Structures are given as structure tokens and as C-alpha cells.
Amino acid sequence: MLTDTSIELRSAKPSLLMRAVKWLMSKRPDVFPKEAAGLEPFLAGRPLPKDAPMPGAFRAKFHVEEWEAAGQKVVTLHPKSGPGAWHMLYFHGGGFVLPMFKEHWPLAQAMVEKLGVSVSLPLYEVVPESVHTRQDELADAAFAKIAETHDPSKIMLNGDSAGGHMALSLALRLAKKGGPMPGKLALFAPWLDLTMADPAMKAVEPHDFMLRIGTLRACGRVFAGEGDPASPQFSPLYYSQEDLAALPPTRIWTGRHDLFIIDSRTFTGKLRDAGVDAKLYEYEGAPHVFMAIVPTRESKDCLNLLGQFLNE
């Protein structure tokens, strides 16, 4: 169950910069359609999605490796001094239907520079142009490849939103296989239930300018294809206590103006009940994937806590 040791409010009110950025972001075109009915024409009428290109300056800042896993591209950023003691496998968000955002690159930069880790970013195929199994194949192959040359206990799985779902699902698949496990699991505003079933989300929805319950449910159905979006395979919130008990130490970061805060609380409680070293950090007024707004106090605090987690 949730206790005062498993959940911590890190920021009682949003910083001035966070409030300003939220206002600016709310004036931009929507990332996803506001209504579920708009998702199908949105996906049907688009050109083939392309990942935001890596900034050219990264080649001077980092040692960059570009490689493939399961026939899909992966970019690894190492500190200039050489590979970090920890290697982070980071999955970007986007509802499984959108490619890498330009905002993900500064977040990756901040993690390499502030934490001294190596970060590998899979640029996975998205649905519906591809199928969800291709994303799983890439995740499995990328972890296996990194583990060939890096101690698995010093590999952290991380991701935001749908990418948090991918990181968690990978950890659960690895546990079922009984092979080497990652040392730690970090989740930034993870999407845990594709069906968005908890009615408590309705109270949060007016404060979340990015996400809508109906649109997310529609995305979940597209991602699951012929599968059941409510099954643990697609909604890891519903894995059994026995399955969850195999997970490594886990930390979750979610803003309180993020629809996913509700399931983050529920999932943290389930992890604690399963005996997992788990903790949730919350930020008042912070939007979905607030840690990607790297200049803010909230993002800096998140990365500081992530660094502490690595050193525990």
C-alpha cells in the first residue's frame, strides 16, 4: 500500500518558469487530437512519421554510436571521457504512434552531462505503420546487445509515457525469461493502463492540456491491434503481485497535472505490496513529462533524484 515512505511531494507549487512554459505550451497546436473520433483520420492522413533529428552539436559534445537492433535504429550517447559506469536504455514517449520529439534530445543531453551515464535511445517503429511486436523486438534486442559488453546490473531501463510502458514491459519480459536483469528501473510519467479505467482520472483531465482520456483509449486500441488492451501484456498495471515481485528497485516521477498520476499512485502501491523497493515523486502543477522541460526547477530536481537513485 502507499505510505509516507513510498510517495513524496517534491514541489508544493509549480515554479514560475514551469507556469510560464505550461502557458506557452497550451497555446501550441495539440500533439494528439482532442477527441477520440479524430485519432483515426489523424493517423490515416499523415506522412510516414520521422524522428526528430539528433542535434548536430551532439557529435562534438559526446561520443556518438549509431547501431541497429531488430533492424531498427538506436543512438547511444557516451560522455566524452568514455562509457559511463551506468548505461541507460531510454524509450521515448508519444502514445506508441508518434516518433521521437525534438524535446527528447535535450533531456538525453542533460542525463548524460549531469549523471555521467551512457544513454541509448531506440528510434522504434510506430503504429499503425508498424505493429507493437516490432517495438518489443527492438527493446529485447537492444538490451541483449548492451548486456554483451556492459554488466546488466549496471543497466537502467527508463522511459517517458508510452516509453515508460516499454521500459517496464521489457523488465517484466526479462524477469519471465529468468535471465540477466537490469539493475534499476526509472519511469517518467509512465502509461500503465491503456484502457484508462480509473474514474479518478476525470478530476485530473481538466488540468492536463496534453492528454485526453478518450484519445488515449483510442491510441491503446490501435497499439494493441487484435489483442486486449486491458490484459497485463498491454496494461502492465494489471500484472500479478508475483510477476511484479521480480522487478528491480523502481522510481517513478509524475506531475499532478498529468492524467497518469492516478495509475502511478496505484502502481507504486502494488509494487510496495509485492516487496519491490519503489517510490513515487510528485510535483504540484507539473504537466505530462515535465522533466523534458530541462531548465525548470522541477526537471533539475528529477535528475538530481535520478542521480541519487543510481548511487544508492
Automatic annotation (TrEMBL):
<keyword id="KW-0378">Hydrolase</keyword>
<dbReference type="InterPro" id="IPR029058">
    <property type="entry name" value="AB_hydrolase_fold"/>
</dbReference>
<dbReference type="Pfam" id="PF07859">
    <property type="entry name" value="Abhydrolase_3"/>
</dbReference>
<dbReference type="InterPro" id="IPR050300">
    <property type="entry name" value="GDXG_lipolytic_enzyme"/>
</dbReference>
<dbReference type="InterPro" id="IPR013094">
    <property type="entry name" value="AB_hydrolase_3"/>
</dbReference>
<feature type="domain" description="Alpha/beta hydrolase fold-3">
    <location>
        <begin position="88"/>
        <end position="291"/>
    </location>
</feature>
<protein>
    <submittedName>
        <fullName>Esterase</fullName>
    </submittedName>
</protein>
<dbReference type="GO" id="GO:0016787">
    <property type="term" value="F:hydrolase activity"/>
</dbReference>
